[in-house]
Amino acid sequence: MKLTRLCVTFKLSVILALMLSALVACNKTDTGSNAASTNPDAAPAAASAGKAVGFVDTQESKPLVIDVALFDTPAAKEFLATGKNPYIGNEEAVAQGHKIFGMYSCTQCHGPEAKGQVGPGLVGPTFKYPKNATNKGMFETIWHGTNGGMGAKGKGLMDPTDPSNGITPDETLKVIAWIRTHGDITGNE
Ligand code: HEC
Predict the structure, then answer these.
(1) How many domains would you assign to the chain?
(2) Is the whole model's pTM more than 0.85, yes or no?
(3) Which of 14, 55, 150, 187 could potentially form a cystine with 64 if both were Cys, beta carbons 3.0 to 4.6 Å apart?
């Protein structure tokens, strides 16, 4: 009789101990994910602390001011801070970039494979504007256009400072990631 009771008490305490350790484990995971979720905020903090790359237009290499608030995804924030395109080699982003290339009519001038049509091929490794071999340079060209028939954001007379107008920084990075899959350079070299 006594032994059974002892057994029950023992079992109960084992169950209690297990529940407690499960709780502790839960808390630990929570702390972990909290720490991870603060990471994307590190980029804007860096940007507002002055760690943003300086953009210049393709026409005259004049400073190109782009509202920092438009860089509203972790990838766009990373690009703003480093000038590197985090979407290079990211299959999902590349697939989206392919769609965006069609959506903003890039296809009509540059061809379905970005190998040229009315406009030049975008595959490289040589470009009319050599800076397009880098992702920062290509971003600037797409954002602000050229004087030779490439409109700002690919759509002609668009105000590149109006966020409601055309392609966003995040979409531009995805388009570039797709364009780069056709050539030998990543643009992040
Ligand atoms: C109306 C036609 C047209 C559309 C639409 C267009 N482009 Fe262009 N693009 C051109 C032309 C023409 C040039 C050559 C510009 C020059 O010589 O100054 C060019 C040049 C470029 C260059 C520089 C190439 C080099 O060799 O330096 C890039 C990059 C580019 N376009 C990307 C894009 C992307 C991405 C889109 C879609 C968002 C787009 N273009 C939409 C006509 C177009």
Answers:
(1) 1
(2) no
(3) 55
